[in-house]
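Thread: DUF3081 family protein, structure

OP (GT): Posting the sequence first so everyone is looking at the same thing. Length is 59 residues per the record. Can we get the structure tokens written out before standup tomorrow? I want them in the notebook alongside the other entries.
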Amino acid sequence: NVYFADEEVSLDINFHNTYRFSTVSKEHNINHTQADHIDVDEKKIKQFKDKLCEINRSY
């Protein structure tokens, strides 16, 4: 799991290049076409994308 500030974020990566992450308050679905349209803090989106890049590099 990934943490933003004090908020735990669970991460699910599937084979369709879609990233689902949920926080205490919301669940979000992200893929490469939707990521710019999600109603969530832009800084969190960037942190999340950076974290995904880290995770992808580790495989």
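GT: Both are above now. Quick notes for whoever picks this up: Helices lie at 42-57. The beta strands are 2-4, 7-13, 18-22, 27-31.
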